[in-house]
């Protein structure tokens, strides 16, 4: 629960940004209980840009001397089998609130941009600095408001930070339309990141 310098009450994103842990979203991880049989619930992680809540399994809640939050999930990493994976503090259903413009309108205003549909995971993330670097596995190039082609898988890299002066979310814009991904309900998001 204390992997970064961020604390509850810190303003870390723009005011319009609202981000929920929502186990009620229809998808493969919709569940009334976590893997420790603690009831799951919808709660804001970030509300109006302010950090409101961390994720807590039984063990992390015990370290903070608070009640578990229903976020203890056996989530395998890399080659772990789900039966061997330890319980980890995990989100159960990501919900990010919508913005005011449709994604088509947002794209029509872009000069030179990349649409990232999928990445190859964040296994190289530096949690202590909230930094990441990952390969784009699916995306499109945009020029003067038009999608001009798809990106060659594995040839493009995206990197940045979640918090601080160079935050990926410092000036994020969310679309009005949202995607039901199987693990969440999320809008398209426009932001600045290092692409190479």
Please describe the topology of this protein.
Elements lengths: L18 E3 L21 E5 L2 E2 L6 H7 L7 E3 L12 E3 L4 E3 L6 H6 L3 E8 L11 E13 L2 E5 L5 E6 L11 E8 L3 E7 L3 E2 L1
Parallel strand pairs: 6-12
Antiparallel strand pairs: 1-2, 1-6, 2-3, 4-5, 7-8, 8-9, 8-10, 10-13, 11-12
The side-by-side strand order for the widest beta sheet comes to 3-2-1-6-12-11
Task: Give the N-to-C terminal Cα separation.
Answer: 32 Å
Report Rg: 18 Å
Tell the overall outline.
globular
What is the quaternary state of this protein? single chain
Summary tags:
13 strands; mainly beta; 196 residues; 5-stranded antiparallel β-sheet; 2 helices; single chain
Describe the fold and architecture.
- It is a single chain.
- This protein is mainly beta and 196 residues long.
- The chain has 2 helices and 13 strands, in the order βββαβββαβββββββ.
- The chain has helices at 58-64, 103-108, and strands at 19-21, 43-47, 50-51, 72-74, 87-89, 94-96, 112-119, 131-143, 146-150, 156-161, 173-180, 184-190, 194-195.
- A 6-stranded mixed beta sheet has the order 3-2-1-6-12-11, with no helix packed on it.
- A hairpin with a 2-residue loop joins strand 2 (43-47) and strand 3.
- The longest helix has 7 residues, at 58-64.
- The mean pLDDT is 88.
